[in-house]
Specification:
With 461 residues, this protein is an alpha+beta fold. Helix content is 35%, strand content 28%. It folds into three domains: 61 residues, Beta Barrel (OB fold (Dihydrolipoamide Acetyltransferase, E2P)), CATH 2.40.50; 122 residues, Helix Hairpins (Orthogonal Bundle); 162 residues, conserved putative lor/sdh protein from methanococcus maripaludis s2 fold (Beta Barrel).
Length: 461
């Protein structure tokens, strides 16, 4: 056979190479199929949706409380001062003691005042004796006796005249005797008139003396009363009950009535008063809620002290100032708290807590579920298809660890509280519903001390 230029001869080596390549290709195909089937059979399953914890939002009734910063003070602080001058002989208290009204605090040297009392009593006795003498009207009686004597003498002279007139008419007696008798009668009549005028003047003078000596007696009584007061002032007593401060004059020192500083001070602590400021809106809510006397009833107040513990006695608002402070836009309220043990002192700071209203259908969300970013608040909500959606919400009052949602949520929706880092918007999750934390709107910390029995004032309330 004649070969053309383009024909090649295939030798034994070329055939063996071709067979080998075909065998290798077949093995490669079988191997790829084998390893591919094995790899697909051993691959791990797709990951399960992440597990998160969520609460189901449902309306419930809650009480809303407000708190204000307050400071305690005493409504009637009394300065103890000396009303007379004297050296302090005795002091019967220690600084910080609780004193009662009428307790003796100081005793001054009272010997000068005792002498004044004795002198005033003696002067009063003298004045009373003078008054009694004037009331006895001795001079009046004497003048009346003189008048009666003059009238008797005039009657005797009249009888002489009557006796001489018929005798002279019968020429049995001289005319001179009748004339003398008539002159004696005229003199007796003049004496009677003089004695009568003297009696009237004596009565007027005696009346004036009685009034004057009565005034002298009253003045003497006043002097004695003042002396006795000065003597009583030498014993300085507590005018009110409360906690007493330190003394400014020790035993042996001179206490004066003109001293600039008081001897000591007494601060009544039962009840203790608290002043706090509220805004105009809070005040209106407070009045509507029954927080003042003007509202007809008074809601109870609680006092939370600086260490977070609560005073066991409830207080009431007793005084409301008459205008709003234009600088701060707040109104000052003043409340009284029973403080029978005197443990709360004036000048302490604390927080006044009161229930201002009730929310019948509040949607509560734990605070840890709320994310705040650039002033906007949002929560992660798990929908019916278990997909997570970010929801913008508006929050109102806080109650313990819970927050009232005012906008953005509906009853029955599930809000993520645990696993927020897994709950991305649009992600599918497995939501396990957990109960909402208990509402502790009226739970307070432990009391400061064991409360004593209610006072009479508290029982009346």
């Amino acid at each position: 056979m004649q070969r053309t230029p383009h024909q090649h001869r295939i030798g034994p080596d070329s055939r063996r190479l071709a067979v080998t390549l075909l065998a290798l290709s077949a093995l490669a195909a079988v191997g790829c199929e084998y390893f591919g089937k094995g790899k697909g059979k051993d691959a791990p399953p797709a990951p399960a949706p992440p597990l998160v914890q969520a609460v189901e939002v449902s309306p419930r009734a809650v009480r809303i409380y407000s708190e204000w910063v307050g400071q305690t003070y005493s409504q009637d602080t009394v300065e103890v001062r000396a009303r007379v001058t004297g050296y302090v002989q005795e002091r019967r208290f220690r600084a910080g003691d609780i004193v009662k009204q009428g307790d003796i605090l100081y005793r001054l040297d009272d010997r000068p005042y005792r002498a004044q009392v004795v002198s005033a009593r003696g002067d009063l006795g003298q004045r009373q004796a003078d008054l009694q003498f004037a009331k006895d009207q001795v001079q009046v009686y004497q003048a009346q006796a003189e008048l009666e004597q003059a009238r008797a003498d005039m009657l005797r002279q009249q009888l002489n005249v009557n006796r001489f007139e018929p005798l002279v008419a019968a020429d049995a007696a001289p005319q001179q005797s009748l004339d003398d008798a008539r002159q004696f009668l005229a003199a007796a009549q003049a004496n009677v008139e003089a004695r009568r005028v003297n009696l009237q003047q004596t009565k007027i003078s005696t009346k004036t003396q009685i009034e004057a000596r009565q005034g002298a007696v009253e003045a003497a009584k006043g002097a004695l009363e003042q002396a006795e007061l000065n003597l009583s002032y030498a014993t300085i007593r507590a005018q009110i009950g409360g906690r007493i401060g330190d003394t400014a004059v020790e035993v042996g020192g001179l206490a004066t009535s003109t001293a600039q500083l008081p001897l000591t001070t007494i601060i009544p602590l039962d009840p203790i008063s608290v002043r706090f400021n509220v805004s105009e809106v809070e005040y209106l809510n407070f009045v509507r809620g029954g927080g003042t006397r003007e509202s007809g009833r008074q809601i109870p107040l609680r006092l939370i002290l600086a260490d977070g513990r609560v005073f066991p006695r409830e207080g009431r608002v007793k005084r409301v100032l008459n205008q709003v402070d234009p600088r701060t836009g707040t109104l000052q309220l003043q409340a009284d708290f029973p403080n029978p043990g005197g443990l709360i002192l004036a000048g302490q700071f604390g927080r006044v807590r009161a229930q201002v209203r009730e929310e019948p259908n509040a949607l509560l969300v734990p605070q840890k579920a709320v994310v705040e970013l650039q002033g906007a608040r949002s929560v992660m909500v798990v929908g019916p298809d278990n997909k997570v959606a970010q929801r913008t919400v508006a929050m109102g009052d806080r109650i313990g660890e819970l927050w009232i949602a005012t906008q953005g949520l509906k009853s029955g929706e599930r809000v993520v509280v645990e696993g927020l880092q897994k709950a991305r918007p649009g992600a599918v999750v497995t939501a396990r519903v957990v109960p909402l934390p208990a509402v502790k709107d009226d739970e307070l910390p432990g009391p400061l001390f064991e409360a004593s029995p209610p006072t009479l004032a508290e029982q009346r309330q």
